[in-house]
Amino acid sequence: MTRATVIGAGLAGCEAAWRLARRGIPVTLVEMKPDRLTPAHTSPLFAELVCSNSLKSDEITNASGLLKAEMRGLGSLILRAADASRVPAGSALAVDRERFASYITDALSAHPLVTVERREADALPDPPAIIATGPLTTDALSGALGALPGLRKLSFFDAASPIVTRESLDDARVFAAARYGHGDADYLNCPLNEREYDAFRDALLAAETAPVHGFEEGMLYEGCMPVESIAARGRLALAYGPMKPVGLTDPRTGRRPFAAVQLRAENASGALWNLVGFQTRLKWDEQRRVFGMIPGLGRAEFVRYGVMHRNAFIDAPSALNASFEVRGRPGLYIAGQLTGVEGYMPSAASGLAAGIALGESMLGRGAAVFPTYTALGALGRYVSSPNRDYQPMGIQYGIIDMPDERFRDKRGRARRVAERSLEAIRQAAAKLDIQ
Questions:
Q1: For residue 11, what pLDDT band results from cuts at 50, 70 and 90?
Q2: Between the N and C ends of the chain, which has fewer C-beta atoms within 10 Å?
Q3: pLDDT confidence bin for 331, thresholds 50/70/90
Q4: Is pLDDT at 129 greater than 80 in this prediction?
């Protein structure tokens, strides 16, 4: 059997390598860590989560939850690891980063058909191959990718939230609750009155930011907008954004606070918590000073400060088809955030789709393309359809084909979308002999 190559052991690369190996195809998985780390990575483990530890909603009536359900139906390694390392986060799927990455690293390292090579790839691999090097692809490989006919490279800026220790929080000010009381009280909340909110916003706007090479405000990705950029949009932008207090009641006052900062558990032990939606480019000492103004965080111990980095993605519609295969280069695929899919799950899903497509092609079974009324199929169409202003996109109902039916409410429509989608996935899994 011909050996396939997968470059990059992030979410997409790991998913692709797993799917190929499970199909009986030997795989060489090339990963440059730990010999070389990007500005955002610190661990030698595969599938390192560098921003939030949340994989977003797990509810099937949510587009993100639907994508997860489809991936589970197709034997996703990433979802298997996420379910095994889950931490409380209400209806969202959040994971213990270390357990999550260790699970995936161990599974691939132990598979008899997977050979791991720890080295940097500086040239395009010979097909059959999948490139899944992520938005921080090295200059050498980026240059090689840029030589592909018709391919343009683009970029945007991404940011991560700070992480603090649980024992350093002030329990006299912090309270546990889920918005509207939905689910268990999996979040910690720091309530602010109007005076505290205004003082915090003023300090945030006046704080010194770290210089980011090539940074332009217009190149920020909306889903990871730094908190100081949100604050600059208007006095109440934070209160209607990451600090919205709706659905919360401060037990000290019995009323809804003017604003609130939420924290979500980072690990299964509950020792570490991250500030939800508080991506930032503030200098580290400024983060300690300004975020320390938030009630309950006055003595917070920061184990990771917020960071910001430049992410690259290709102009996928100019180069890829709906199976993530490079046009004119049979057997060469590109997957993950490098293609312009945004977020952990869409990135992993693209790796799964590319792995399935390459595997089926190598086995002589023809192309594997999912219907565009599935989340997987919708992502494939998005990256391959002509788009004059191509930008990173996560999964949302706006790109999934809707049923031609009338519904009383959005949830009824969402349930019908899920039913139709998951039936297609069940049929695909049976055809692909996925156990």
A1: very high
A2: C
A3: very high
A4: yes
Fold (CATH) for 4-152+315-431: FAD/NAD(P)-binding domain (3.50.50)
pLDDT in the model for residue 85: 97
* Exposure letters 223-239 (e unless 16+ CB within 10 A, then b): ebbbbbbbbeeeeebbb
- In terms of phi and psi (left: phi > 0; alpha: psi -120 to 50; beta: otherwise), the region of 48 is beta
Give the separation between CA 156 and CA 111, rounded to whole angstroms: 36
- Burial class of residue 366 in the structure, from the number of CB atoms within 10 Å of its CB (0-12 exposed, 13-18 middle, 19+ buried): exposed
Do the bridges between strand 163-165 and strand 272-275 make them parallel or antiparallel, or are there none, so unpaired?
antiparallel
- Checking phi first, is residue 53 left (phi over 0); if not, alpha (psi -120 to 50) or beta? alpha
Question: Which range among 222-226, 250-254, 258-262, 267-271 shows the weakest confidence by mean pLDDT?
Answer: 222-226
Identity of residue 170: D
Please give the single-letter amino acid code of residue 425: I
The answer to whether the beta carbons of residues 265 and 88 sit under 8 Å apart is yes
Q: Are 352 and 19 in contact (CB under 8 A)?
A: yes
Give me the mean pLDDT over the 112-135 stretch.
94
Q: Is residue 118 exposed (0-12), middle (13-18) or buried (19+ Cβ within 10 Å)?
A: middle
| Cα angle value 404/405/411 (rounded, 5°) | 115
CATH of 160-309, one of 3.90.930, 2.40.30, 2.60.40, 3.40.50: 2.40.30
CA distance 131 to 324: 10
Q: What's the CA gap between 125 and 129, in Å, rounded?
A: 6
d(CA 297, CA 73): 42
What are the structural domain ranges in the chain? 4-152+315-431, 160-309
The Cα–Cα gap between 385 and 389 comes to 11
> Residue 84: is its pLDDT beyond 80?
yes
